[in-house]
Amino acid sequence: MPPLVLVLIFVGVFTVVAVPVIAIGSTRRTKQVMATLDSALATESPSAREQIINLRKDASLSSIPWLNRKLLQFQLAPYLDGLLKQANVRWSAGKLLLISAGCFAAPAFGIYNQWGNGLLGVGAGLLLGAAPFAWILFMRNRRFEKFQAGLPEALDLMVSALRAGHSLIASMGLVARECADPVGSEFKTCFDEQNYGLEMKAALDNMQHRVPIQDLKITCTAIMIQKESGGNLAEVLDKTAHVIRERFRLKREVKVHTAQGRLTGWILSLLPVALGTALYFVNPGMMSVLWHKDIGIKLIWAAVGMTVLGGIVIRNIVNLDV
Questions:
Q1: pLDDT in tens, 130-156
Q2: Which pLDDT band holds residue 61 (cuts at 50, 70, 90)?
Q3: What share of the chain is helix, strand, coil (3-state, %, to 5)?
Q4: Of 304, 307, 291, nearest to 121 (Cα)?
Q5: Is residue 321 within a helix (H) or strand (E), and if so which, with residue range?
Q6: Could you tell me which residues come within 8 angstroms of residue 268 by beta carbon, excluding any fewer than 6 positions away?
């Protein structure tokens, strides 16, 4: 049996066995933490209060001990963990990698077993193995867009609270209570960090790290400048909200004017794939030459490279920085 098949079988079996184990372990750990909280809150004994103090955020990258140790040795794991938190997806970095490995192994083994083409199987496996990462990035971008859309209203609420006589921290607490997720949840985290003793600058820097968008950077910079130089904070935030709305309006106008170029890029990128699939169903013998002969494989790689390069060029043309 070829080594590639053995590797794919091992990865597939490992994924099928490991994912249920992770789910069961996470469920048991959650029930144990909830039971500890219930028992601790039901009594006033010092030992119970000590249990509450010992509860910490779980910073592990995987529920499998040896996989967690391995992930901590690589710089990629903290990046994946931050990506999952920004997307508000309750996965660990290890779980994401295991799901991606399963998405790679299943189609790669199936295509190799059906047509005997290892190169095509690996290509399809890499494409589907990247699907979980693409979904995480999509959820992350959608969450950032919702935050960007809700930020001006949150600033208006802070301006009203400041003009009514509340402090900056109290106005942030009002935003945390009244605004919907993700604006409310992010401001709540920032508000809680300040209540726990963290400095304002550090709390705002942490929020910028969690939501790295330009509008939030403008807001945090305005707050810190006012805090150092003084002035009317309500007026500063009011003008900041106006600037953010104007940038948001300008981005929408740019998106409308570049819609034709973006649609052209999608059509030109997907047309070869759709046309090749249609020709394969019409005449399989003619299309199979592409992956049964060396010159056909070279043509496939050349076509993929030129298609990707053309898509990148079109995206850079229509992607204007506002």
A1: 999 999 999 999 999 999 989 999 999
A2: low
A3: 85, 0, 15
A4: 291
A5: none
A6: 307, 310, 311, 314
